[in-house]
Design brief:
The chain has helices at 10-15, 19-29, 123-133, 138-145, 149-166, 210-225, 237-246, 256-280, 284-291, 294-298, 306-318, 320-338, 340-355, 360-371, 373-382, 387-402, 409-420; strands spanning 34-42, 47-54, 70-73, 78-86, 89-96, 99-102, 106-109, 175-184, 188-195, 200-206, 230-233, 251-254. With 430 residues, it is of the alpha/beta class. It has three domains: 6-119, no CATH class; 121-254 and 403-430, Nucleotidyltransferase, domain 5, CATH 3.30.420; 256-382. Strands 10-9-8-11-12 form a five-stranded mixed sheet, sandwiched between helices. Helix 8 (256-280) runs antiparallel to helix 12 (320-338).
Length: 430
């Protein structure tokens, strides 16, 4: 069956004489705050073109600051802005675009209430595009909205810039989390800062060093740095150094996941040493048993399968040092599970045991944990971890995968700020 064809009445499109009809069309076009002069169907473009003009109160305003300014000239004459489609038909708004002479910004194109400055799209079109980008791939958005791939990136940048100008995302920070995430091959990293109280991303920048992180605290300023109380992070030296320099009053909380990961890595070193020693000495049965024990040793006891429980039990008799290394890892995990004063007591006992265990990787680990003991005890007292930051990192990886990667860090930062920073606009009319 052939699709039905609906032809728009030319008399309705060209004149729109009825006041109620004009109100309906203004709502359909998303220009309630403007004057609708007329409508026509452009046969060549296959689109509806609406002639509009700003209301009297919105005329002769600077496109950058909206300050009323004196008229300079007529600019380049009439121009068009792409609006949201009516069904499957493209829509354009057409209006004069004179220039004004602003006291602050000089000669610039006058502001229009239906579009952002320096944009060829209506605000409703850009808001819908930005909303879609946070939920699907840029190529799908490009196909749906009938715009170029690069155009989508420009829309995201404009929406984020306007949202950031309207709200100070760095105000009121008390507890923050800092971490880095790899967004591309070749050691390309972003530093992300998350507000624990609001649960949102507040800042991101390319890099993974003191200079990059210092830019955040410089943007924050001395007064707001002094208000920071708690900062969660991993044990990276460059994070601790910058935090101490800019906000020495803030207490640093070491993320439990990273501390336990150190113990897991030490345990794996012991497992590899024991396995290699067994092979060199010709104890192939023992080596075979140990070869499949990696994941059983890594997993938490409550998550072990029956077969893995048997593997741990056999290690107890096959190699006593490896079994002690496993117990050391589990006791360190217990430190964070108990937390509080009991957790600090268990931590002290763990350090004594690790120092005299005669298992080199754990003796080294004991020295490392001793250096960070104050930060670990702060974590045990206050229960602040980097779990929220890791959740944000997971969402950033998801956005990167949906978009099939990014060529520039700034494009990724704009998208993550839009999606995870609380700046995503609602759908038009919602």
């Amino acid at each position: 069956m052939a699709p039905a064809r609906i032809r728009l009445s030319r008399s309705v499109l060209e004149e729109v004489p009825n006041v109620r009809m004009k109100s309906v069309w203004r709502r359909l076009l998303g220009v309630e705050g403007a004057v609708l002069e007329g409508l026509k169907f452009d046969e060549e473009a296959g689109a509806v073109v609406a002639s509009v003009r700003p209301a009297r109160r919105d005329r002769q305003r600077c496109g950058r600051c909206s300050r009323r300014s004196g008229r300079y000239d007529s600019g380049e004459g009439r121009r068009r802005w792409r609006g949201l489609d009516l069904g499957s038909i493209p829509v354009y708004l057409e209006a004069e675009a004179p220039r004004v002479n602003c006291i602050e910004h000089g000669v610039t194109v006058t502001a229009v209430p239906w579009a952002r400055h320096d944009s060829r799209f209506t605000q409703a079109f850009e808001d819908q595009t930005a909303w879609l980008v946070t939920r699907t791939s840029r190529s799908a958005v490009s196909e749906l909205m009938r715009v170029a791939w690069r155009t989508v990136g420009g829309i995201i940048t404009r929406v984020v810039q306007e949202a950031e100008a309207a709200v100070d995302r760095l105000s009121g920070l008390r507890r923050i989390g800092i971490d880095e995430i790899s967004y591309r091959k070749g050691h390309k990293y972003l530093i992300v800062v998350v507000d624990h109280d609001q649960g949102r991303l507040v800042w991101a920048t390319p890099g993974r060093d003191e200079a990059a992180l210092s830019r955040f605290f410089e943007a924050l300023g001395p007064r707001r740095c002094a208000r920071l109380e708690l900062i969660s992070a991993d044990a990276a030296h460059w994070i601790a150094s910058v935090v101490k320099r800019y906000c020495p009053q803030a207490r640093l909380c070491l993320d439990p996941f990273h501390v336990v990961a150190w113990a897991t890595e030490a345990l794996d070193q012991v497992r590899r040493q024991v396995w290699n020693t067994a092979r060199r000495r010709g104890h192939y049965d023992i080596a075979r048993e140990l070869k499949g024990a990696r994941f059983a040793l890594w997993k938490n006891p409550e998550n072990l399968t029956r077969r893995q429980e048997g593997k741990i039990a056999s290690i107890r008799y096959l190699n006593e040092p490896l079994f002690r290394a496993y117990l050391l890892k589990e006791q360190l995990r217990l430190v964070f599970k108990k937390a509080g004063s009991l957790g600090k007591q268990i931590l002290g006992e763990w350090l004594q045991w690790a120092r005299r265990c005669r298992i080199r990787p754990f003796v080294t680990l004991a020295r490392t944990i001793s250096r960070h003991r104050v930060d670990i005890e702060t974590t045990l007292d206050l229960g602040l971890s980097n779990a929220l930051v890791e959740s944000v990192n997971t969402k950033i990886r998801l956005l990167t995968r949906i978009a099939f990667g990014f060529h520039s860090a700034q494009a990724l930062i704009s998208l993550t700020t839009l999606a995870l920073g609380g700046l995503c606009p609602p759908l038009p009319g919602r």
